[in-house]
Amino acid sequence: MQTSSAAASAKGQDAAAGFRLALAAHWVACGSVVAYPTEAVYGLGCDPWDCIAVRRLLALKARPEGKGLILIAAAWLQLEPYVRNLDPERMAAIHATWPGPVTWLLPARPETPRWLTGDHATLAVRVTAHPLAAALCRRWGGALVSTSANRAARPPARTALGVRLALGVGLDYILSGPCGGAARVSSIRDGRTGAVLR
Q1: Torsion angles phi and psi, residue 174, rounded to 5
Q2: How far apart are alpha carbons 23 and 157 in whole angstroms?
Q3: What pTM, to 2 d.p., does this model score?
Q4: Which of 30, 44, 45, 158 lies at 20 to 30 Å from 178 by C-alpha?
């Protein structure tokens, strides 16, 4: 009897989690800004191709467009529309760090919007190791903008409550879940040289 109750409870929790994930993906598809947990902190995301959504996100953070943004994905295939491959040896080294908390600067494709690259010829991209963030990318069907959930110069939020307190009503949806436990946000490295930039 207890085993049946536990199984029913687990099934109910799975259904609720699936519903929240579907709702977050729906909000992204509707041009909204959502928050979700990543390896170290909560991220803010939206559809990278949606100029209005990206600029809403930047305004929410008080982040200048010229600084550029990071994209996360569940797989390299979701990042290929935005960046060009380097030589096979460099790409093998990059792929060896993913999924994981390493963000790489790669040459942006000519069609990649300036609201993503900012004042740069490169774009920062990562295949995330966080299961919920990756699941959101799969459910949404593509890469997501990913920038820490905080206003500029403020500490990034590590909980759903922290996100709500930091960003208030300007945020459309929070996909609640634990962050991955990493002490620091992802490192950023130059794809061409491997040099650590952050």
Answers
A1: -120, 120
A2: 21
A3: 0.90
A4: 30
Task: Output phi, psi for 144, to 5 deg.
Answer: -125, 145
Rounded to whole angstroms, the Cα distance separating 62 from 198 reads 21
Domains defined along the chain, listed by start: 2-190 (3.90.870.10)
pLDDT 10s digits, 81-132? 999 999 999 999 999 999 999 999 999 999 999 999 999 999 999 999 999 9
Checking 159-165 for CB contacts under 8 A at 24+ apart, the result is 159/42, 160/35, 160/42, 162/42, 163/35, 163/42
Q: Which two tokens stand for residue 72?
A: 């996360």
Instruction: Return the C-alpha torsion angle 181, 185, 187, 191, nearest 10.
Output: 110
Q: Where are the alpha helices (DSSP H) in the chain?
A: 2-29, 51-61, 88-95, 114-117, 131-140, 160-167
Q: SS3 breakdown of the chain: % helix, strand, coil, rounded to 5?
A: 40, 20, 40
Other CB atoms within 10 A of residue 100 CB = 16
